[in-house]
Structure formats: C-alpha cells, structure tokens
Amino acid sequence: MSGKSKAVPLWGAGCMSGTSLDGVDVALLKTDGVTIFEFGGTVFRPYDPAEQEMFRAELGTWQASEALTELIETAHAEALAQLEGFDLIGFHGQTLNHAPDEGRTYQAGDGAILAEVTGAPVIWDFRTADVEMGGQGAPLAPFYHHALARYIGATEPVAFLNLGGVGNLTWIDPTVADPSAPGALLAFDTGPANAPVNDLMRARRGETHDADGALAAEGVPDMEIVAKGLEHPYFYKMPPKSLDRNDFHGVLEAVETLSDADAAATLTAFAAASVARAMEHCPTPPAALYVTGGGRHNTTLMRMIAAGVDCPVLPVEEVGLDGDMLEAQAFAYLAVRVLRGLPTSAPSTTGVRAAIGGGRVSRPNEPV
Ligand SMILES: Nc1ncnc2c1ncn2[C@@H]1O[C@H](COP(=O)(O)OP(=O)(O)OP(=O)(O)O)[C@@H](O)[C@H]1O
Ligand SMILES: CC(=O)N[C@H]1[C@@H]2OC[C@@H](O2)[C@@H](O)[C@@H]1O[C@H](C)C(=O)O
C-alpha cells in the first residue's frame, strides 16, 4: 500500500476514557485512514470524585455494573453533544481489565447504545479481535503515531511516548510507508507512568495527582527501591508487551515507610527509569522522543526522563500537536481505518499473528 489513499476523508470523533480515570477526551480528526488532513474541535468531560470512585470499585472486573455502563455512555454522549460535524465516532470505552496472556481484555461501555443516542455510526471494541489473534490488544495508538510522524515531516526514526496511567512507547521509521510492514514500527507499554503517583497522592493527601511534579521535586528518590522495581519480570520481556493499570500496584507498598515527598520522588523516578529501560528496545536511536499524555505536564517526571535517555525529550506541542487529545485523535483515526477495512495493529505493535483490523461497527437504528 502506498502512503496515500484515494478514499474520501471523513471527520471522526475519537473518544478516550483512559486508565488515569480523569475523564473522557473527545477530539475531531479529518482523515481517510491513512493521511491526517485536519484537526478539529476537542472536549474534555471530567469524571467527578464520586464517578471516579465508581470506576475504581470495578477495576479488575470483567462485567461492568449497569450503573457504570450508563455513566460511561452518558459521559460520552454529553461530551459528543458539544461537538458537531462528525461522520462517525471512535469509542474506546473504559478498560476495566486487561489480561492479554489469558486471551482477554475488557473495555466497558456499549457502542450500540452510543450509536442510538448520538445518531452516528460508532466503531468500538477495538482490542478484542487482536487479543483473540494472539496479540496484546495494546497499545493501539502506534498506527496513528506512524501517521503523525509523516504529518510532522519526520524523515528519520522518531519515538512517541504516552505518559498516561500506564506509559507506552512507539518507535517509528517514517520512511516505511505502510505501518503494517516489518520495520515500520515497534511499540509496547513501558511500565507504570502516572498511576502509582496518582494512587499515592490520593491515599496520602486526598489529591488526584502530583500537580506539576511539585511534591516529587521536594523529595529524594530511593534508588534501591527503583532498582528493585526494575527487577520485575515485565522489564525482561521482549516487546511487544502490554500492562494492566494495576500490574504495578505493589510498588506502593515499597514506598510505604517513606515521607510523602520521598515516596512521590521514588515513584516518579521509577516511571522515568522504566522509560529509560524501554528506550533500549528501540531498533535504532530515535532523533527525538515526543511526549504526549498528562504526564508531560509533570516537570519532575520530564526532567528525570530527559536525564535517562540519549535524545531530546520534547512535549508534542514542540511539533505542533496537542498532547492532551492525541489518544482521542488516535481512536478517530483507527475508527476510519476500521470502516475502510485497513489494519489497526500488526505483529510489531501488539504481537498479533498478522496485521488485523479490530473494532465493531454499530449503526443507529440497528437492533441493539
Ligand atoms: N499538571 C500536571 N502535573 C502532573 N501530572 C499531571 C498534570 N496534568 C495531568 N497529569 C497527569 O496525567 C494524568 C492524565 O493523563 P492522561 O489523560 O494522558 O491519562 P489517560 O489517557 O487517562 O491514561 P492512559 O493513556 O494510560 O489510558 C493525570 O491523572 C495526572 O497523573
Ligand atoms: C488495555 C488498555 O486500555 N491499555 C491502554 C493503557 O493506557 C496506556 C497504555 O495502557 C496503552 O497500552 C493503552 O492505551 C493506549 C491509548 C493505546 O492503546 O495505545
């Protein structure tokens, strides 16, 4: 396949409710599923503390309660109602459980109901087909990262790092036009990013996160705990590989006896060290590491990451992108690819047996 396609571009509304449980991001993107033509409006619909509690109570389950399913659908419908002019919706849902090695992953929320409520076709359940074909079902943003690398005019390998609840890294060779082709991409989850620090802040201070990394900046990381954390078998696995949000929950116990500031510094240093470890898997050194996701606002984390890698570490805003909305855009892009019958993952991004297009399509007025 060449880098250009003749299909008519569509406006997709991509929706992401991520592992940090902070809310729903929605972003419009005009694409033919290959090329990015235009970025459109965005909306963030936060989850309030009571809603976040509802999610936390069901993390790790394989069937969301009716109340939670309704919350997910309502929050998405509220966010989508603030935007207009889209042809279709890419609906990720909320990951409540992820066990790809057991062949299952679960994103709560029903796309068929969202199609009824919004009157637009909804592409959803992006991860199941990949997992059923032996893949990790994650990360899925890499095909979009490949399109972005071409969009920003990269001519040599670059990498994207998403710092959400969990971190994920994509190495891209933009000279390979087809993202499914061998050598175009290598992608995997790096380790815990914001989730452990968020959990610490919530437990110790009743706050959602360490704003700007201020508390971590006051502390001293315990590098013995960091080194011990890096002995986790996950870091010895070859990519592709992926994580559940709570896979590293145990690290919180390791910092139990430290002061709040030292504990925050240690968990932040652990997130940074897992990025440094991840960079060792890149097939060639990338020209730059472009950072997206909420963690790029954490200056202490960004400083620690920059100290541990050999290339410039830059927020994606440096190349004109929106790091708060990039994952939502990814699901708009992937939705159009699904409609066009194009693959959304490949052996080099999820470990799936062959390139595959995941996703179900629900149209309004179809029986639910
Ligand atoms: N100003 C800030 N200072 C420090 N951390 C921040 C700041 N803003 C956001 N964050 C962190 O970023 C998180 C949100 O990131 P993001 O929205 O990228 O995650 P997500 O999409 O839910 O997760 P994932 O990518 O794992 O699905 C917050 O929970 C917080 O930990
Ligand atoms: C199972 C699941 O929801 N995984 C998320 C999570 O959050 C970050 C990381 O872990 C990544 O693997 C993925 O999200 C992004 C959007 C992805 O699929 O690319």
TrEMBL record:
<keyword id="KW-0418">Kinase</keyword>
<dbReference type="GO" id="GO:0016301">
    <property type="term" value="F:kinase activity"/>
</dbReference>
<comment type="pathway">
    <text>Amino-sugar metabolism; 1,6-anhydro-N-acetylmuramate degradation.</text>
</comment>
<dbReference type="GO" id="GO:0016773">
    <property type="term" value="F:phosphotransferase activity, alcohol group as acceptor"/>
</dbReference>
<dbReference type="InterPro" id="IPR043129">
    <property type="entry name" value="ATPase_NBD"/>
</dbReference>
<dbReference type="GO" id="GO:0097175">
    <property type="term" value="P:1,6-anhydro-N-acetyl-beta-muramic acid catabolic process"/>
</dbReference>
<keyword id="KW-0067">ATP-binding</keyword>
<protein>
    <recommendedName>
        <fullName>Anhydro-N-acetylmuramic acid kinase</fullName>
        <ecNumber>2.7.1.170</ecNumber>
    </recommendedName>
</protein>
<comment type="function">
    <text>Catalyzes the specific phosphorylation of 1,6-anhydro-N-acetylmuramic acid (anhMurNAc) with the simultaneous cleavage of the 1,6-anhydro ring, generating MurNAc-6-P. Is required for the utilization of anhMurNAc either imported from the medium or derived from its own cell wall murein, and thus plays a role in cell wall recycling.</text>
</comment>
<keyword id="KW-0547">Nucleotide-binding</keyword>
<feature type="binding site">
    <location>
        <begin position="18"/>
        <end position="25"/>
    </location>
    <ligand>
        <name>ATP</name>
    </ligand>
</feature>
<keyword id="KW-0119">Carbohydrate metabolism</keyword>
<dbReference type="Pfam" id="PF03702">
    <property type="entry name" value="AnmK"/>
</dbReference>
<dbReference type="GO" id="GO:0009254">
    <property type="term" value="P:peptidoglycan turnover"/>
</dbReference>
<dbReference type="GO" id="GO:0005524">
    <property type="term" value="F:ATP binding"/>
</dbReference>
<dbReference type="GO" id="GO:0006040">
    <property type="term" value="P:amino sugar metabolic process"/>
</dbReference>
<dbReference type="InterPro" id="IPR005338">
    <property type="entry name" value="Anhydro_N_Ac-Mur_kinase"/>
</dbReference>
<keyword id="KW-0808">Transferase</keyword>
<comment type="pathway">
    <text>Cell wall biogenesis; peptidoglycan recycling.</text>
</comment>
<comment type="similarity">
    <text>Belongs to the anhydro-N-acetylmuramic acid kinase family.</text>
</comment>
